């Protein structure tokens, strides 16, 4: 059981605060809960939230002591965070658990000194403030999340879900994370480098969307899809396809295809015993060498090592024969 400690620093952002329990709570490993999530604050009880709400936080800061992952969620305390919270975070970093923030929680990590010399991000309206106030932090603007060693930071709101799904993928693999994403009705793969702000996250009235074309491509990842194939399905030009793809996903069509193919290969490595060359073919990566290259670049593991790690996590669970 992986223990997650969520720190609420008032005034809390209620949406951000709810994300870890919702996402990690849905992660099942071999049919059993994969995570235990506890929420704590410096003064347990009712804490202020944005707006007219108050939130009851049952635990104190003691939950951090035995946590495997510590997450600080969005807060209005971009200055003068509680010294007790900062001390607990520094102690946690010294004992080397994984520490993450959602939204303006990055300001709390920065005040604790945990982001010094590291790359980090936050909700885009506050990126300039983070960079100005904490010169030792390498602020990466307009990305969903950043992972720098054991410290992870994310943008605001829905990007917190992307961060939590990323952590589940790292802990238990793509298949578990994808199952959680389906339950949450969110995209199973929005990678950290994707832009926070898209030019047109929703098409204008009367404009077409590429959602159907992306779904069509996902069903054909094993085929040698080209920009022309995607444009033909969308009934548009390659130029318009590329512009709309970038506007809707933050990625070029070929970047998006590669991301989906690597994720499909990872899932097949996790849940089947297919040979590596067959998985490369099914996922559209072409050859075992190509699969090895992209997987090592993504997760620093060869396909054989990735499969072994996945099976070690899963224990004796059976795999499909493909």
Could you say which overall geometry the principal axes of the C-alpha atoms support? globular
Distance between the ends: 30 Å
Strand order of the largest sheet: 4-1-7-8-12-11
Taken as a percent bin, the fraction of beta residues is 5-15%
Number of domains: 2
CATH topology descriptor of the largest domain: Rossmann fold
The first-level CATH class name of the largest domain: Alpha Beta
Largest sheet features: 6 strands, mixed
What value does the Rg take, in angstroms?
21 Å
Number of helices: 13
Give the proportion of residues in helices: 40-55%
What is the mean pLDDT? 89
- Overall number of strands: 12
Task: Give the helix/strand class.
Answer: alpha/beta
Q: Which segments are poorly predicted (pLDDT under 50) over 5 or more consecutive residues?
A: 197-206
Question: What order do the SSEs take from the amino end to the carboxyl end, as H and E?
Answer: EHEEEEEEHEHEHEEEHHHHHHHHH
Could you name the CATH homologous superfamily of the largest domain?
Answer: Class I glutamine amidotransferase (GATase) domain
CATH-level-2 architecture of the largest domain: 3-Layer(aba) Sandwich
Summarize the structure.
This protein has 322 residues and is α/β, with parallel strands linked by helices. The chain has helices at residues 14-25, 83-94, 105-111, 127-133, 159-172, 174-184, 211-218, 227-234, 238-249, 253-271, 276-283, 288-299, 303-314; strands at 2-7, 28-29, 32-33, 35-40, 45-48, 54-57, 69-72, 98-102, 119-120, 138-139, 145-148, 151-154. The protein has a 6-stranded mixed beta sheet, with helices on both faces. A two-stranded antiparallel sheet has the order 2-3. A two-stranded antiparallel ribbon has the order 5-6.
């Amino acid at each position: 059981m992986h223990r997650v400690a969520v720190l609420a620093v008032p005034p809390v952002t209620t949406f951000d605060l709810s994300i870890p329990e919702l996402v990690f709570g849905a992660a099942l490993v071999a049919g059993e809960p994969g995570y235990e999530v506890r929420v704590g604050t410096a003064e347990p009880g009712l804490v202020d939230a944005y707006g007219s709400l108050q939130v009851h936080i049952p635990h104190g800061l003691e939950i951090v002591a035995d946590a495997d992952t510590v997450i600080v969620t969005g807060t209005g305390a971009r200055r003068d965070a509680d010294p007790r919270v900062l001390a607990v975070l520094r102690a946690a970093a010294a004992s080397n658990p994984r520490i993450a923030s959602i939204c303006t929680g990055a300001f709390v990590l920065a005040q604790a000194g945990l982001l010094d010399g590291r790359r980090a991000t936050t909700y885009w309206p506050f990126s300039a403030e983070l960079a100005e106030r904490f010169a030792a932090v390498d602020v990466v603007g307009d990305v969903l999340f950043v992972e720098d060693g054991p410290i992870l930071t994310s943008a605001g709101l829905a990007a917190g879900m992307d961060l939590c799904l990323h952590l589940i993928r790292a802990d238990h693999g793509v298949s578990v994370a994808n199952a959680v994403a389906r339950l949450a009705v969110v995209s199973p793969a929005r990678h950290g480098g994707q832009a926070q702000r898209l030019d047109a996250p929703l098409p204008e009235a009367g404009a077409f969307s590429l959602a159907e074309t992306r779904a069509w491509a996902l069903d054909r990842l094993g085929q040698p899809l080209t920009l022309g194939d995607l444009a033909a399905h969308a009934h548009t030009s390659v130029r318009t396809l590329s512009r709309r793809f970038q506007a809707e996903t933050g990625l070029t069509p070929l970047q998006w295809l590669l991301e989906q193919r690597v994720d499909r290969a990872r899932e097949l490595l996790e849940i089947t015993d297919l040979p590596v060359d067959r998985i490369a073919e099914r996922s559209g990566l072409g050859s075992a060498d190509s699969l090895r290259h992209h997987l090592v670049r993504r997760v620093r593991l060869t396909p054989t090592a990735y499969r072994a790690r996945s099976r070690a996590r899963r224990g004796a669970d059976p795999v499909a024969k493909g």
